[in-house]
């Protein structure tokens, strides 16, 4: 998988992030990852609550909630296996910066499309990070685990893009997605140094 051709991300993660940050902070990374899965489930629930009339979206988000919480439990299982305890939730500065790009005005539908594209962006970057981790981490169990989750995140990314196009109602989703990609490229320049999935 090439993040440039499939995910369209403009800046790849430096593999040295895995060696210099991830491997020396596995407990921190796992805790942050667990909460990333929980937040992804919460985001899907919010989309259901805000759009109960969109039956296809409700069905897909309900399935996503189950999958994300399954991932949460699997990460938590690894935490327990290694003798760690799930720490407190970490603030995700990367996601908070991306949220600033959401349209504050406009129609309810425009806000939905932005929310779906924001979700797609987070999944795309998570997928790219999991790919880098799976390829460069010196832990066979985690390498296999993150390879599996990389595939899952790619599926989530395409789900959100597909739903955005389905409910576009005249909005140029490709144009808006390009704007998101350009903005994310600016944001991600400041990350890749801390012990979080998006850090």
Index terms:
0% strand; mainly alpha; 72% helix; single chain; 199 residues; 8 helices
Approximately what portion of the residues adopt beta-strand conformation? under 5%
Kindly, what is the distance between the CA atoms of the first and last residues, rounded to a whole number of angstroms? 22 Å
- Report on the biggest sheet: none
The chain-level structural class is: mainly alpha
Number of helices: 8
Q: What is the β-strand count? A: 0
Order of helices and strands: HHHHHHHH
Large-scale geometry: globular
Q: Roughly what percent helix?
A: over 70%
Rg (CA only) = 16 Å
Average pLDDT reading: 92
Low-pLDDT stretches are: 1-5
How would you explain this protein's 3D organization?
The chain is mainly alpha-helical and 199 residues long. It is built from 8 helices and no strands. Helix 3 runs antiparallel to helix 4 (55-81) and helix 4 runs antiparallel to helix 7 (140-166). The chain starts with a helix and ends in an 11-residue tail after the last helix. The relative contact order is 0.18. Mean pLDDT is 92; it is low at 1-5.
Quick summary of this structure?
The protein is mainly alpha-helical and 199 residues long. The chain is built from 8 helices and no strands. The radius of gyration is 16 Å and the shape is globular.
Secondary-structure topology with pairs:
Layout: H1 3-7, H2 16-22, H3 26-50, H4 55-81, H5 93-99, H6 108-136, H7 140-166, H8 173-188
Helix pairs in contact: 3-4, 4-7, 6-7, 6-8
């Amino acid at each position: 998988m090439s993040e440039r051709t499939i995910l369209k991300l403009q800046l790849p993660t430096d593999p040295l992030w895995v060696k210099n940050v991830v491997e020396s902070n596995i407990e921190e990374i796992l805790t942050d990852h667990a909460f990333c899965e929980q937040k992804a489930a919460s985001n899907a629930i919010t989309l259901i609550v805000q759009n109960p009339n969109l039956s296809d979206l409700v069905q897909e988000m309900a399935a996503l909630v189950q999958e994300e919480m399954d991932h949460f439990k699997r990460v938590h299982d690894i935490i327990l296996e290694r003798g760690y305890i799930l720490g407190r939730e970490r603030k995700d500065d990367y996601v908070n910066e991306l949220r600033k790009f959401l349209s504050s005005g406009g129609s309810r539908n425009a806000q939905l499309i932005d929310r779906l594209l924001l979700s797609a962006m987070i999944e795309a970057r998570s997928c790219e990070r999991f790919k880098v981790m799976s390829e460069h981490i010196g832990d066979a169990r985690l390498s296999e685990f993150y390879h599996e989750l990389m595939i899952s995140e790619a599926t989530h990314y395409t789900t959100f893009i597909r739903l955005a196009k389905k409910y576009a109602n005249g909005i140029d989703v490709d144009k808006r997605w390009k704007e998101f990609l350009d903005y994310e490229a600016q944001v991600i320049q400041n990350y890749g140094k801390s012990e979080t999935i998006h850090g």
